[in-house]
Predict the structure.
Amino acid sequence: MNLRHYVRDIPDYPKKGITFFDITPILSTPKAFRYVIDQLYEKYKDCGADKIVAADARGFIFGAPLALKMGIGFVPIRKPGKLPYKNRCVTYDLEYGSDTLCMHVDAIEQGDKILMIDDLLATGGTAEGMIKLIREAGGEIVGAGFVIQLSFLDGDEVMRAADVKHDFLIG
Ligand code: PRP
Ligand code: MG
């Protein structure tokens, strides 16, 4: 399966000079969507994770079905103001400005083994925020899986600096 065929490039979105990788063709094509989940499953079925942690919003699309297939829990990391119970939040730097990610305080227990999932690793900013949040909660990250990695950006470097082993399907 040539998965790249199901990712649509949208030039100059959301702003000029940026090419947006649109994953909706994967989602609307069952054989492609199933292929993504099956490939991630093969990579991570024996990783020993207790929980999958995924980021609002596109991370949920792949993280939730994978958690179900692996038979483990799913923890959503959300943008501020979305989770109703007590929150643990981190603010992390972006190229211009900063962003905040939150998780329920009881979502991860000390020593939980965590698999991180997201659709895309670009600058690594989101992943870095997730790593901080998971570690502050006492989680041990056993791996991080992405559907796409943009190798011309710094994501790879961020993951290496954080000492998190990651993998991807399209790079
Ligand atoms: C997108 C994408 C990744 C992140 C990757 O999320 O889904 O989570 O950017 O970029 P980075 O490595 O530079 O952080 P975004 O928050 O833009 O949108 P979403 O809510 O659709 O997931
Ligand atoms: Mg995202």
Remarks:
- The CA atoms of residues 59 and 118 lie 4 Å apart.
